[in-house]
């Protein structure tokens, strides 16, 4: 069964260079049969990166994916507070480079169609940290865009019900403990075609996050969609533009 990891990072992984860190991630991925990774955000995280930090983070991911072009597709890390710098990085990394999408974290609540980190924290969200409700507003403004809802919102039960009506929003299972029933609920409420496997490695292990899908009581076809087929379908247009055939 083919597996593509939608959501991982170079942070928290052994190695002094981006190439070495992605190599270690791939070493771990190989043990579990994970074929492709999508890293983002560079070797060190920054909540609210200035333009020079954005460029540094993206340079590190570019180095990593260029060292392993057959195994990894990068996401450009942007910060909407720095509009022109982010547009420049989008052009440099995605339009003119090998990256295949955009990652936003917590610098500012979601304003653009991207892989968007979301969370509902009982202790209160970080300043600028998006919630599932923010993503629903975004989805309504951009009904033709495909949005990916990072981490199933932290509070998965509330989050899944929140995004259920938004058919242009996909649920990313990455991060968080492998809670019983999470994947089953996502499949039941959203449909297997709207659920993606991701690990959030190196913050989480590949194995613990795969357990959410491999241990779920769902049909085999749903498992295949979540582990690779949905992501391949989403990436096919941009990969075709870049001359990559699946």
Please name the defining characteristics of this protein.
41% helix, alpha/beta, TIM Barrel, 8 helices, six-stranded parallel sheet, 246 residues
How does this structure look, described?
With 246 residues, the protein is α/β, with parallel strands linked by helices. Helix 1 packs across helix 2 (51-67), helix 2 runs parallel beside helix 3 (83-95) and helix 5 (156-163) runs parallel beside helix 6. The two termini are 15 Å apart. 41% of the residues lie in helices and 12% in strands. The protein is globular. It has one domain: Metal-dependent hydrolases (TIM Barrel). The strands form 2 sheets. A 6-stranded parallel β-sheet has the order 3-4-5-6-7-8.
- Span from first to last CA? 15 Å
Tally of distinct domains? 1
- Largest sheet, spatial ordering of strands: 3-4-5-6-7-8
Specify the structural class: alpha/beta
Secondary structure tally, helices: 8
Helix/strand layout:
Elements: E1 4-9, H1 18-31, E2 36-40, H2 51-67, E3 76-77, H3 83-95, E4 102-104, E5 115-117, H4 132-141, E6 147-150, H5 156-163, E7 169-172, H6 182-190, E8 195-196, H7 206-214, H8 220-241
Parallel strand pairs: 1-2, 3-4, 4-5, 5-6, 6-7, 7-8
Helix pairs in contact: 1-2, 2-3, 4-5, 5-6
Structure in a nutshell:
The chain is α/β, with parallel strands linked by helices. The chain has helices spanning 18-31, 51-67, 83-95, 132-141, 156-163, 182-190, 206-214, 220-241; strands at 4-9, 36-40, 76-77, 102-104, 115-117, 147-150, 169-172, 195-196. The two termini are 15 Å apart.
